[in-house]
């Protein structure tokens, strides 16, 4: 069946969220450490400066509870709230993640 661009993006970000969460505690939300891992996944393994990471985390954590759940990450990434630095790197990482990770987005 046909998936819209938004549906594919949501699925992509959901899978990366899962990878970042499972790599640490698998509790269904990302703390700062897991969020850093998420950012590394989409930026070719590069870490952002702490201040930029903190700022992005605060922007993504819309309810301010110190954890980012799946709805917050999807809202953050799909609605263009994410920093352009991350979004510019996404297509490169998207191409690299799909074949090598076994994640199936079709």
Could you give a short description of this structure?
The protein is mainly α and 106 residues long. The protein contains five helices and two strands. Helix 1 (5-22) crosses helix 2 (32-42) and helix 1 (5-22) crosses helix 4.
Strand order of the largest sheet: 1-2
Overall radius of gyration: 13 Å
Helix count, per DSSP?
5
Q: Helical proportion?
A: 55-70%
Q: What structural category arises from helix and sheet content?
A: mainly alpha
Q: How many strand segments?
A: 2
Order of helices and strands: HEHHEHH
Distance between the termini: 9 Å
Sheet-strand content, in percent, reads: under 5%
Are there runs of 5+ residues with pLDDT below 50, and where? Answer: 91-106
- Shape designation: globular
- Largest beta sheet, briefly? 2 strands, antiparallel
Mean pLDDT: 77
Quickly list its features:
about 110 residues, mainly alpha, two-stranded antiparallel sheet, 2 strands, disordered C terminus
Structural overview:
- There is one protein chain.
- The protein has helices at about 5-20, 30-40, 50-60, 70-80, 85-100, and strands at about 30, 70.
- The protein is mainly alpha-helical and about 110 residues long.
- Strands 1-2 form a two-stranded antiparallel ribbon.
What does the secondary structure layout of this molecule look like, with pairings?
Blueprint lengths: L4 H18 L6 E2 L1 H11 L7 H11 L7 E2 H9 L5 H18 L5
Antiparallel strand pairs: 1-2
